[in-house]
Design goal:
Blueprint: H1 2-20, H2 31-44, H3 53-82, H4 86-96, H5 103-107
């Protein structure tokens, strides 16, 4: 028991001496230390975060928007190279058979009036 008390008193003396001499020691932390500290802070993340299901939905919406823009760009390039023009298609259908051509036929509701 006496030896553990002596060790505790010796440790207290060392800690007091270190505390008193802390102003004399000038240690400048290096860049590695700063990087490690910032990495640890990023690992902790936000402390007062509340679960919001719309935040996950927000990520999905932005990914879908990106995919939709890529598809629109690809379709625009395809139409530009093939020369497909929907106005010419509809005009040629109407001029080929003006009596039976209706909007409902274009939409696929009726095959013909017969």
């Amino acid at each position: 028991m006496a030896s553990s008390e002596k060790k505790a008193q010796h440790l207290q003396k060392l800690l007091r001496a270190a505390y008193v001499s802390k102003e004399q020691i000038e240690i400048e932390p290096g860049t590695r230390w700063r990087m490690d500290v910032m990495r640890d802070i990023r690992r902790l993340g936000p402390l007062n975060v509340q679960f919001n299901p719309f935040m996950m939905f927000n990520r999905v919406v932005w990914r879908f928007a990106e995919a939709a823009c890529v598809v629109a760009l690809v379709m625009t390039v395809y139409v530009g190279f093939t020369g497909w023009n929907p106005i010419e298609e509809v005009t040629s259908l109407y001029l080929a058979n003006p009596v039976e051509f209706t909007v409902s036929q274009v939409l696929g509701e009726y095959e013909s009036y017969e």
